[in-house]
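Continuing from yesterday's entry. The apo prediction looked reasonable, so today I'm repeating it with flavin mononucleotide included to see how the binding region is handled. Same sequence as before; SMILES copied from the compound registry.
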Amino acid sequence: MKTAIIYSSKHGCTEKCSQTLANELSTNTSVINLDITDSIQFENYDTIILGGSIHAGMLNRSMKKFISKNLKEISEKKVGLFLCCMEEGEKAQEQFNNAFPEEIRNMAKVKGLFGGEFNFDRMNFIEKAIIKKIANIENNLSKINYKNISQFANEINQ
Ligand SMILES: Cc1cc2nc3c(=O)[nH]c(=O)nc-3n(C[C@H](O)[C@H](O)[C@H](O)COP(=O)(O)O)c2cc1C
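Holo prediction written out below.
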């Protein structure tokens, strides 16, 4: 049994969640940054977990592209999907549904909302200004939902 966690991350939160998840999985797991390589040896894995984040309502472009390009290969595996975002509850669920196409949501055995972080150290000037204005904060904030990550891991491990 081998698992690939394939992620795209702008300011490091999805990367952190991917590493945390990998540590909780009982399978042999590779953590792959899609923004470094999008060439995946699908035959090496029986489980594929895809993780992305939301910026201005949209999923990372590289993840979107990867899903549409590899839908057939992904559909032959056990699939997990997770999202990092700062919205919570219904709004977060709505973003999840908009981010991942219906086809892939239907094939996913496990789905998760892992919360998010505002990391001002990694934002550019414009992003800082947007977050200051919209969220009314100026300091780093972490709302990673570690409980949801553990629950997701348990479901994959079963
Ligand atoms: C410029 C900007 C726009 C964002 N827009 C949204 C948004 O529309 N909805 C949301 O829930 N979170 C939004 N976020 C929060 C991100 O989803 C959060 O920072 C997440 O942890 C980013 O993960 P990443 O660092 O792995 O890309 C935004 C963050 C930034 C910096």
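Comparison notes:
- The domain at 2-157 is CATH 3.40.50.360 (Rossmann fold).
- The pocket of flavin mononucleotide is lined by residues 9-14, 53-57, 84-87, 95, 116-118, 123, 127, 130-131 (CB under 6 Å).
Will overlay with the apo model tomorrow.
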